[in-house]
Design a protein that fits this description.
With about 110 residues, the protein is mainly α. About 80% of the residues lie in helices and about 5% in strands. The chain has one domain. It is built from 5 helices and 2 strands; from the N terminus they run αβαααβα. Strands 1-2 form a two-stranded antiparallel ribbon. It is globular and about 40 Å long. The model has no long low-confidence stretch (mean pLDDT about 90).
């Protein structure tokens, strides 16, 4: 039961992130139709919930060498994967993706 509530919280928080980020980052757009928006939040939560632990395990030596800064690269890749899995998220350029991945990574690591 705790796992389900944790996942629902993660989806809700990712939905909130997807709602707020386009207002602050000009190149970050999200389709606001509720089906597309909910699907994007779900995809982002699944990517962070399933792929992040695997990528952190694989890149553990880099995480140690960079004192955790490699997490930014991991979050960048996760956002790139989520963008390719859903058509609701569109990111214009490298800088916007980097800033968005940094923000999403920080918020998702709190959960």
């Amino acid at each position: 039961m705790r796992l389900i509530s944790h996942f629902v919280l993660r989806v809700g928080l990712n939905g909130l992130i997807l709602w707020v980020l386009p207002q602050f980052l000009a190149g970050f757009t999200v389709n606001r139709e509720w089906q597309m928006f909910a699907g994007a939040a779900l995809v982002l939560a699944l990517v962070h919930g399933l792929l992040r632990p695997i990528l952190k395990l694989i890149s553990f030596p880099f995480l140690i060498l960079t004192l955790g800064l490699f997490n930014i690269v991991i979050n960048f890749v996760l956002l790139l994967v989520a963008e390719h899995l859903t058509s609701a998220i569109t990111i214009a350029d490298f800088q916007t993706r980097l800033i968005a991945s940094f923000i999403i990574g920080i918020i998702n690591s709190v959960i």
